[in-house]
């Protein structure tokens, strides 16, 4: 992988260098000194653009979140809500497998901006897409449930997809199995069990 070239946007150059190192060595190994060397900056000059490693990691995580959200939106597009929920779950797991370090960094470097159910979900959150799709699935059945019910169903689906992703990235990383088929069956069963398929 070639060294990121300097651009007119130093932050972009630094982020590109940091992401390259994350992909190559993992997010836990990231250091400002290594990022500076990769980007062609002095370590001290990085502080002109980022307050420190925490801000740099947060920026990388925000980028990963935007990529994940785009993937999930494409998976949901044009489908009936119940089918979209299954496809979104599968896309979530696929993104994790294809972008392992981005995914792991996202869930270690970016805390939820909500501190409770009473707070609105940020529009740029992948969870918002899930909650909106759950609400649409319920509305199709003429069911208008309070936000706690929507959140409960969305959380169950998110937890299932996240658990699948983490198992496949870690404990089952070398395990040979048809995970996409197993994941699809599990997500279909969960959508049905949550009564989101209209049955």
What would you say this structure looks like, in words?
It is a single chain. By secondary structure, this protein is mostly helical. It folds into two domains: about 10-50, Arc Repressor Mutant, subunit A (Orthogonal Bundle); about 65-195, Tetracycline Repressor, domain 2, CATH 1.10.357.10. The chain has helices at about 10-25, 30-40, 55-75, 80-100, 100-110, 125-140, 145-170, 180-195. The chain starts with 9 loop residues before the first helix and ends in a 6-residue tail after the last helix. The model has no long low-confidence stretch (mean pLDDT about 90).
The gist of it:
The chain has helices at residues 10-25, 32-39, 53-76, 81-98, 100-109, 126-140, 147-169, 179-193.
Shape: elongated
Strand content: under 5%
> What ranges have pLDDT less than 50 throughout 5 or more consecutive residues?
none
The number of helical elements comes to 8
Distance between the termini: 50 Å
Largest beta sheet, briefly?
A: none
Number of strands: 0
Element layout with pairings:
Blueprint: H1 10-25, H2 32-39, H3 53-76, H4 81-98, H5 100-109, H6 126-140, H7 147-169, H8 179-193
Helix pairs in contact: 1-2, 3-4, 3-5, 4-5, 4-6, 4-7, 4-8, 6-7, 7-8
Q: Can you give keywords for this protein?
A:
2 domains
């Amino acid at each position: 992988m070639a060294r990121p070239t300097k651009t007119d946007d130093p932050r972009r150059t630094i982020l590109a260098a940091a992401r390259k190192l994350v992909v190559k060595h993992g997010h836990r190994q990231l250091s400002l000194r290594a990022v500076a060397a990769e980007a062609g900056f002095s370590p001290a000059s990085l502080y002109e653009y980022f307050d420190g490693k925490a801000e740099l990691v947060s920026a990388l995580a925000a980028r990963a979140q935007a990529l994940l959200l785009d993937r999930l939106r494409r998976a949901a597009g044009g489908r009936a809500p119940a089918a979209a929920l299954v496809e979104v779950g599968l896309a979530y797991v696929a993104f994790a497998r294809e972008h392992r370090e981005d995914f792991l960094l996202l869930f270690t470097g970016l805390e939820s901006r909500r501190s409770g159910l009473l707070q609105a979900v940020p529009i740029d959150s992948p969870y918002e897409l899930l909650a909106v799709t759950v609400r649409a699935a319920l509305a199709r059945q003429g069911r208008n449930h309070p936000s706690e019910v929507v959140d409960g169903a969305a959380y169950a689906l998110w937890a299932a997809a996240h658990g699948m992703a983490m198992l496949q990235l870690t404990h089952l990383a070398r395990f040979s199995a048809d995970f996409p088929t197993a994941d699809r069956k599990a997500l279909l069963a969960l959508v049905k069990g949550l009564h989101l398929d209209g049955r």
